[in-house]
Design a protein that fits this description.
The protein is an all-alpha fold and 315 residues long. 75% of the residues lie in helices and 0% in strands. The two termini are 41 Å apart.
Length: 315
């Protein structure tokens, strides 16, 4: 009996040590990414970024930036309350977003290597912009929302999340679509509620803040995307971030019916990027890791099993 308790205590201590080491890994990885973010982007674009942040807060920025007010307001208030500089506030905010994103992915998948792989690829997402800090919070909110949907959380909690998310970026609409897809016919009422909240805020922001000219027209975006340079940059930067999509499609038959339906979220999400986004901007694909992380786990586990037993047939 005494030996049993000793082993139980040792197992508990081992688990606590493992959790501490894992948390330390995510903290270190988030810190490294913040340094890379500062080195690649912030130190060269701080003046432009501060100007755009001020324009968004004042409601004078061009579209679509004018209608993404929450993060610029958060950063401005943080600067005023703490006395931090623009760079300090942006790096502090980015560190928290990176850390929470890794923690969410680790919890959702139960695998250290999934968020670690994302962390390794993240430097590709830190380029090609000078002020889009909402991209990091967007990935956190979509990932968190998908976890809540899969865990059966109340529509009220999801509605609150959509309300916050809609002030960050227009992509909050994909949480309503994800709810419909995951729950099928039984999810129409809840999904419609989430869509209505998103629609009210989407239109309300444009009514309150007024009409704004777009930074780039659709024709200019298409020209950038379809140029030789644009296509090469997409292959180098965008395609690696879509790894979970390819992996999940490969093993989709091993997922549950609800999870397979959720895969269809990629169609409107990537469709919106195809029309409105700049394809080479790899940060746009990070939120998809919340959708396809479970498929990536199945694919990765099967690959590891084949490496251990190359002649064994994986079901």
């Amino acid at each position: 009996m005494g030996g049993y308790y000793v082993r139980a205590v040792e197992g508990t201590l081992h688990q606590k040590d493992s959790r501490r080491l894992t948390l330390l890994l995510w903290v270190a990885l988030a810190g490294i990414l913040c340094w890379v973010y500062w080195f690649q982007v912030i130190r060269r674009t701080a003046e432009q970024g501060q100007l755009l942040q001020m324009q968004i807060v004042q409601g004078t920025a061009d579209a679509p930036y004018r209608y993404r007010p929450l993060v610029p307001w958060m950063l401005t208030i943080a600067q005023q309350v703490t006395g931090a500089s623009y760079t300090q506030a942006l790096l502090g905010y980015s560190f928290v977003c990176f850390l929470v994103l890794f923690l969410l992915l680790h919890r959702a998948t139960g695998r250290v290597w999934v968020p670690l792989l994302l962390g390794i690829l993240m430097p590709l997402t830190l380029r090609d912009h000078y002020y889009q800090p909402w991209s990091w919070l967007e990935a956190v909110l979509l990932g968190w929302g998908l976890m809540l949907i899969r865990s059966g959380s109340s529509v009220g909690l999801l509605a609150l999340l959509v309300g916050i998310y809609a002030l960050v970026r227009e992509t909050a609409v994909f949480l309503a679509i994800a709810y419909w897809l995951y729950y099928g016919r039984t999810g129409w009422k809840g999904g419609s509620t989430l869509l209505a909240i998103w629609g009210i805020l989407f239109l309300g922001l444009r009514m309150v803040l007024g009409h704004a000219e777009w930074v780039n027209t659709l024709a200019e975006i298409a020209q950038m995307n379809l140029s030789i340079k644009g296509l090469v940059n997409f292959l180098v930067k965008g395609v690696p971030l879509l790894l979970p999509l390819w992996a999940t499609l490969w093993v989709r038959k091993y997922l549950s019916e609800s999870e397979r339906r959720l895969l269809w979220l990629a169609v409107p999400y990537l469709g919106a990027i195809a029309v409105f986004g700049v394809w080479k901007e790899a940060r746009l694909y990070v939120p998809l890791w919340g959708v396809f992380s479970l498929g990536l786990v199945v694919w990765g586990d099967s690959l590891l099993e084949r490496m251990r037993a190359p002649h064994k047939q994986i079901a």
